[in-house]
Design brief:
Low-confidence stretches: none
Keywords: Amino-acid biosynthesis, Aromatic amino acid biosynthesis, Lyase, Phenylalanine biosynthesis
Number of helices: 9
Radius of gyration: 20 Å
Protein name: Prephenate dehydratase
Order of helices and strands: EHEHEEHEEEHHEHEHEEEHEEHE
InterPro entries: ACT-like_dom_sf, ACT_dom, Preph_deHydtase, Preph_deHydtase_CS
GO biological process, one term: L-phenylalanine biosynthetic process
Helix content: 25-40%
Organism: Candidatus Fimicola merdigallinarum
Mean pLDDT: 95
């Protein structure tokens, strides 16, 4: 089994994939430099599955991931999910001794999750976005400038950095949801969570009619996210997560939703692994 994930090592993606890979007795973990790279590898069968960040409790959805699930020509599906706690830390070189920090480097989500800390302590310092929190730590370790990264503690271990400040995220209960993506379409609705995507006709009340179907069948909707359709301003598709104990009711409700929408796709019915 080959499983792809966002590298380099020292990222929360590495932590998520290590947790997930415990379910396999024989697994090869393969790094990719971007989320898009992981998704492409799954689409092209370079790996069997990919573990990618989907949403954060502070900053919300990771647009690269959700758009890859919705808009790619080669269909991807959600097989499982992994949720981990996120502790962001400010890392500097081991020889740092109070010098002015020129830049702070991290993944865009990492920077956004620490917005309050940055405004209060580094309001005049440039924040630079890179492909991952681990990549930010690597850049800091190799630079001759006095830089800092927002990264996990494991990045400090890997790159020999010093933790200047721990737990700098805006909320102590910060969590990120990762999804395991595959080419295999879901064969049942037996998972704890079911994800769908659909579009409606551009008429008054159309979305309300769809959401009312879930209320009628007593199905709990745990997430709704709108994404622009890319081709025309003001047109959207909708990503929805639902939970239902009665799978027959869920099946009937989704059939009704499919009949009432202009486009519908079941993205997965799955269970949280960790």
């Amino acid at each position: 089994m080959k499983v792809g994930y966002l590298g380099p090592n020292g990222t929360f993606s590495e932590q998520a994939v290590l947790n997930y890979s415990k379910i396999y007795s024989d697994v090869e973990l393969i790094q990719f430099p971007t989320i898009r790279g992981v998704l492409d590898a799954v689409e092209n069968s370079i790996v069997d599955e990919g573990v990618v960040p989907f949403e954060n409790s502070i900053e919300g959805v990771v647009t690269t991931t959700i758009d890859g699930l919705i808009f790619d020509d080669k269909k991807l599906y959600i097989k499982s999910e992994v949720v981990i706690g996120i502790s962001q830390n400010l890392l500097v070189r081991s020889d740092y001794n109070g010098e002015k920090i020129e830049r702070i480097i991290s993944h865009p989500q990492g920077i956004a999750q620490c917005d309050k800390f940055l405004r209060e302590n580094f309001k005049d310092t440039l924040c630079e976005a890179v492909s991952s929190t681990g990549e930010g730590a690597r850049i800091v370790s190799e630079s001759r400038e006095f830089l800092a990264s927002i990264s996990p503690k494991r990045s400090a271990e890997i790159y020999g950095l010093k933790i200047l400040k721990e737990n700098i995220q805006d909320d102590s209960s910060n969590q990120t949801r990762f999804v395991v993506v595959t080419n295999e379409s879901p064969k049942s609705l037996l998972g704890d969570k079911t994800s769908i995507v659909f579009t409606t006709d551009h008429k008054p009340g159309e979305l309300y009619k769809i959401l009312d179907i879930f209320a009628i069948w007593d199905i709990n909707m745990t997430k709704i996210e709108s994404r622009p359709m890319k081709h025309k301003l003001g047109t959207y598709c909708f990503f929805i997560d639902v939970e239902a104990e009665n799978k027959d009711d869920l099946r009937d409700a989704l059939k009704m939703v499919e009949r009432k929408t202009s486009f519908f796709r079941l993205l997965g019915s799955y269970t949280r692994v960790y």
